[in-house]
Specification:
heterodimer, A: 175 residues, five-stranded mixed sheet, 7 strands, 37% helix, B: 138 residues
Chain lengths: 175, 138
């Protein structure tokens, strides 16, 4: 019995070693997924972010057609990276609405002039109020919403080339 | 005089214009007028995790998003919500992750509460063995 106990420290060290090694090899991902996926869109109403386009309210997202809701900001670098993919989605016939996070009208207009404007409506969320309602923790994030306003999917981070097909599939399934 | 002018110019160094050009949310850095409500909001903010800088509470963090969360907490408490209602509003959206006071009766977070008790009991058990041995030895 006691002879077996001699091995206990080594076993404990082994457990410790494995724990540290896994932490090093696969660092913890700190992405916080929204718990609102599968739930209806919370009610909100946001004023227009730029003069030329209407603002966004939750009622705009329950018109029977699946849509994308993109949260972006002019100060966000990955938002520039995903701009071509959003334009490609728009060309594919997807309706994309947007929430501009903590931004000014001039900066938003400059951003859209420079990187393209794939949006139907853009609401401005200067105090992150709607972003918190959505369980979103940063920019860019994109929500897939079905025609009844139910959140089907949350895409965290920039949309890459390889994500387009999946988003279109999700939109078709939601239709 | 020249030196004074140089010092004056230094006051307008670039950091003045850095960070965000947008003013913070109304109650991000402003206390509520009612001291009881402010104390309740303050206590809750210490227990809510910042979404951007994940090891800080929103009371500790300077991230703009943490400011927006503080403002939401204060506005909701000023509107008559209890701190627990505000907490569950956030937990509903971000999961238990957002709270530094995790529930005992949850499949994931119960070990956080039970593990210290188990470790303490194990330590007591080990210490007990030690005491008995010295007694036997005498």
């Amino acid at each position: 019995m006691n002879r077996w106990l001699l091995w206990l420290p080594l076993v404990l060290f082994g457990i410790f070693f494995v724990a540290v090694a896994t932490g090093l090899i696969m660092p913890k991902d700190n992405i916080i997924e929204s718990k609102m996926v599968g739930k209806p869109m919370p009610a909100f109403e946001l004023p227009a972010a730029i003069e030329q386009q209407p603002g966004l309210s939750s009622a705009d997202l329950t018109k029977g057609k699946p849509t994308l809701l993109n949260i972006f900001a002019s100060w966000c670098v990955p938002c520039i990276a995903e701009a071509p993919q959003l334009l490609a989605l728009q060309r594919a016939g997807v309706e994309i609405n947007a929430i501009a996070s903590r931004d000014t009208p001039e900066d938003i207009a400059n951003f859209l002039n420079r990187w393209g404007n794939p949006y139907t409506r853009i609401g401005t969320d200067t105090t992150s109020k709607v972003q918190l309602e959505l369980g979103s923790s940063g920019v860019p994030e994109t929500f897939v919403i079905d025609g009844d306003g139910i959140i089907v999917h949350q895409h965290i981070g920039d949309i890459r080339q390889e994500d387009i097909a999946k988003l279109i599939e999700l939109l078709e399934d939601a239709g | 005089m020249k030196r004074f002018l140089v010092l004056l110019i230094l006051c307008f160094a670039t950091p003045v214009a850095a960070q965000t050009g947008l003013p913070p949310a109304p109650y991000a850095d402003r206390q509520l007028d009612d001291p009881i409500q402010e104390a309740a909001a303050r206590d809750l903010m210490e227990e809510l995790r910042c979404l951007k800088c994940q090891s800080q509470s929103i009371a500790d963090s300077n991230a703009p998003m943490a400011g927006d969360m503080r403002s939401q907490v204060r506005e909701r408490i000023a509107a008559g919500e209890t701190p627990e209602q505000v907490r569950s509003w956030l937990v509903e959206r971000y999961g238990n992750w957002v709270s530094y006071n995790p529930p005992i009766a949850s499949a994931v977070t119960w070990p956080l509460w039970i593990a210290p008790i188990i470790l303490l009991l194990a330590a007591l058990w080990l210490a007990r063995g030690r005491f008995r041995k010295t007694k036997d030895g005498e």
